[in-house]
Amino acid sequence: MARPVLLYVPHATRPWKALPLILNLHGSGSNGAQQLDRSGLMEIADRHHVILASPDGGLALPSGGLAWNIPGVPTTAGTLPPADALDDVAHILALIDTLIAKGCTDPGRVYATGLSGGGRMVSLLGCVLSDRLAAIAPVVGLRAGAPDHSTPAKPDVTSCRPTRPMPVVAFSGSADTTNPIDGGGAKYWQYGLLAAERRWADINGCYGFIESEPVRSGRLKRRYLGCRPRTDVVSYVLKGGSHEWGVADMQLLWRFLSTHKRRVNDPFVDASLPVGK
């Protein structure tokens, strides 16, 4: 099914040059146009020559706006996506492949970020499209698969098994009551940033040790140590920050994404620790 997508192409772009792509996913109850306008990423796109794609989610919410179809995960309306809902993963995969085929996008520099429910969708993409994405950057929405049925405070390790490690940078707020960093909050979240980043650290083969340091603008940087090369797991928690895009810093976000490039047609091989273990 053909679906429109809002693209932002930076000024003075050379038509023959394939550029990095950032998928910019809206939160529940919003849409692609609102996310593009509010995210502040157009300045990053112009300065660093990046294409932005802000698609619409495939689910219409009863209260208005759109949400993403994450199979088996309730929306903010508290209901599961219907069986006949539009396939948002297939939609985004087709978008990536189309832009690559047209020569617009560098296949090794495809990234994804998103707010809240969009961050939840970005996390799913990190699980199932690791052969397309170079890094992900969820904002107040980091996940690592569905909650475990028996222990909802932890992710179900069988529900996120990427084919290769995935670099992750996440942004959250210490005062987020919708998706608290240590879990709880709204029923459709159940586990929070800390549990999600631990799971991504396992996927990326990190040692499990965390380095913490204060950085600019009241943020605490958390970084897992000993990860496989080019597969960092980093988060920034804004002191007093709530459930909103404002907890993210676009310069920090782009700095992380831009340092990661996927090796195209270079399968990941590591006999010591299978990906997704």
List the helices and strands and how they pair.
Layout: E1 5-8, E2 19-25, H1 32-39, H2 41-48, E3 51-55, E4 59-60, E5 66-67, H3 88-101, E6 105-115, H4 117-128, E7 135-139, E8 168-173, H5 193-203, E9 210-215, E10 219-224, E11 233-238, H6 250-258
Parallel strand pairs: 2-3, 2-6, 6-7, 7-8, 8-11
Antiparallel strand pairs: 1-3, 4-5, 9-10, 10-11
Poorly predicted runs: 268-277
Q: Can you write the helix and strand succession as a string?
A: EEHHEEEHEHEEHEEEH
Return the average pLDDT rounded to an integer: 92
Count of individual helical segments: 6
- Strand order, largest beta sheet: 1-3-2-6-7-8-11-10-9
Provide structural commentary:
This protein is α/β, with parallel strands linked by helices and about 280 residues long. It contains 6 helices and 11 strands. The strands form 2 sheets. The chain has a 9-stranded mixed sheet, sandwiched between helices. It has a two-stranded antiparallel sheet with strand order 4-5. The longest helix is centred in the middle third of the chain and has 14 residues, at about 90-100. It starts with a strand and ends in a 19-residue tail after the last helix.
Key descriptive features of the protein:
nine-stranded mixed beta sheet, disordered C terminus, 277 residues, single chain
Offer a concise description of the structure.
This protein is α/β, with parallel strands linked by helices. The protein has helices at residues 32-39, 41-48, 88-101, 117-128, 193-203, 250-258, and strands spanning 5-8, 19-25, 51-55, 59-60, 66-67, 105-115, 135-139, 168-173, 210-215, 219-224, 233-238. It starts with a strand and ends in a 19-residue tail after the last helix.
